[in-house]
């Protein structure tokens, strides 16, 4: 790999505005450096910043950017009130990686589009203006929503899908002060020329993820993930669903899809359609259909749209059935549900 | 039979004291504590690190390498390109034996596949070498590559892998077909696969004058020493090759590749030790793979459901410069009673690295297609899959007419079906459920040949009653250090704890190749014979020594056991130590060989039956192998614990082949899009909730004197088809392409 400087930021102040690539858990950045996709001149190690706590915040939770994925997944508050987040986290990567990967790093991880990861392929995301190497290539895993000819990559995170469903907010600090962005809009969608503008300005750092009070959504929330390997594999498609149900009627619904777009895909229309409807198979089927509105294949991935609808349906059904007392042994697995007898 | 007679003639020792015991690995502690030294762990003084630069195009030529930039990088010592690379003594395309592939040693600027070595950078640190290789920033003149079965160039050939005939015909398929009641066809495609040994290919090379020391993981130490010597133009006696442990090989470390020679040549040229370790992505190119296949089968049935004719054709890929064709159709030669049988192979040339042997080469994809076709035929005949296979059970090898040396397959069917509960299967597809999930039960027959190679061994009994056994075996994780020592201990008639095993380097007698599932049989025979030879010498001493209680018992009249020789005619015995001490000897040394003499007059195979249960989500198409049970008849089981581990490992490979493993090319660039362990999926523990492998008793007096068949590869066969058939039973969708993707099931 290229030669680079390494500095450790001891305080948040030292990290803000610093020039270089931010290094936290390193589970993605170091891989990218080894394969020549990321070639930073300088690494700023922020892993020791005091952003490693999960705090109560206005009825919700505030998760520091340096909290490890595994810690969130075993946090009693998260398990009790945001179970779909815990399930999403436990369905991702491996135990070793979850122990190392941070909240902020999970949000900032790069797409696993193989053309992005191959420095010899054109990629607008890696090298603006070079074109999209994936278009016309091996595209089974690529986007069906929100893509352009400039970029058809998907965001790989499971955590972010659940966070988007929970209306999470990303707290960002930079030279210009604080700003907040909704999780569901944090990752830019591609524009005609490429991947869109980067989510963080130079010198900015994610400090926290804030989760609002889930209220009645706490009891009926699940994450479901389709993949060929039962662990240590990214989603073909996934869905997070959370429902508030009173007397059999849905009073609030949340639905987000993973593996379909360059960001976790919040399905607002489907949510609207569920509100006030009975928690029934018909309601869920209708919502699942709406979830992928506007979807179109970007290559050899026409099957993703029906699969996304079906994973949405499954997540809604499982959410309606109630969050289990304990997370299943195969978190988020298609085979993990009580619905499978 | 000659071996057997020889051994009976020696008469003093027998297998069964140590062999047969479920010992834990003798090298287990070394491995779990990290004390076992693998090739890349070696750090001789003055070491230089080498990194290969590899081609980013699949066809064309390299027009420019920025050697100046690489050489200017701090720490870089040397850059080798076709302009200055040291030459081998032989042409890179020389075939000194059938297991030599083109040695890519930077002889010209042409590129024949993506990932081909195009330069070698030597530096003081690994990091500097890696950056130097990156700085070469090659430019190319690229041509349009052909990398898949669809666009590759057909060619005709008489031979497939290892020089086997490309076709076979017995009986009259056409006549039988025209008279048959039913005709069943099946087409199955399998994907390009990679070995994915966790230990990457590595070499540390050091010259001391004209003597060369090599540390490199290798499955055929003796042969590789010869090959290295030939390409280097030196005498084999100048080379010491060490390979005490392999972190997986699966066939890919049986074949040498040019990078190893480049590292050796660089070490000689620069006068310093050189280490070259492939990056993970570099494991997907120059060091072999399993080629994709497109297989077409036709099974013609008479009115009673007997196979009247069986035809199996395979189309598969090789590189543009070497020929290794996956001999998949051969899987149909010896398994089912097909009185009329025709098999064929057709090659295509593509801009890919040369494929090579990968665990059950030919048999794995061939068995998968055959077993799916057999289920199609069973359906056509209106029979249960097991009943249909039993009806077409081959009592003799249909391709040769020879009797089987042993065939415990009926017991395998019975035992595995019973444990699985196969009798409860409901025949119709989509007729079994578990909650909302579709449940499917499928089966497949496993079969793998029992080759033997050439091995030699020494066994030395020492004055203190301990022994040293010597043969350059390869332990690639299968447990050779343990299983071979068990056989040797029985050959010596002593407890295994008294046996010191020297193995894994080329100054020892050659144990042959660890491949073809024949290593334990071959090297084990050599070790057993060496031990028996040592005991024979000891018995001769004792029975001729008037001071010995064994005096006059005669050679045939004593038996070795637990380090003592016992008279067969009364209770008297004597420890080995006393015999040696009285004779004034420090040791006696026995020598032994292991090989099969002459052409076998029997068909020799391991067999097995594998039963799979899958659950399939009907909406999402995801498949889970919820139960996998196999029973295997593999002759004498030397170590049940290790054998089970081998069989389970093979079966888990079957899960991967059926549901996950697939190298995906970009057809425009010819590069792989998933050349790492994140993108190329192999099964994880969570994919294997319930798996069991049984062995059934099988005595085989013909396969070799010890009755050992082999368990390393057979687990892959049968399993892939069983899973495919279970998916078919669950969903009603006949698999035509492996791995089976969820989207093909919705």
From TrEMBL, chain A:
Arranged from A to Z, the UniProt key words for this protein are: FAD, Flavoprotein
- Domain FAD-binding PCMH-type positions: 1-216
KW Flavoprotein (keyword) present: yes
The answer to whether keyword Thylakoid applies is no
UniProt-listed InterPro entries: CO_DH_flav_C (IPR005107), CO_DH_flav_C_dom_sf (IPR036683), Diverse_Substr_Oxidored (IPR051312), FAD-bd_PCMH (IPR016166), FAD-bd_PCMH-like_sf (IPR036318), FAD-bd_PCMH_sub1 (IPR016167), FAD-bd_PCMH_sub2 (IPR016169), Mopterin_DH_FAD-bd (IPR002346)
Q: Which Pfam families match?
A: CO_deh_flav_C, FAD_binding_5
Q: Which Gene3D superfamilies match?
A: 3.30.465.10, CO dehydrogenase flavoprotein, C-terminal domain, Uridine Diphospho-n-acetylenolpyruvylglucosamine Reductase, domain 2
UniProt name for this protein: Xanthine dehydrogenase family protein subunit M
Q: Which organism is it from?
A: Salipiger mangrovisoli
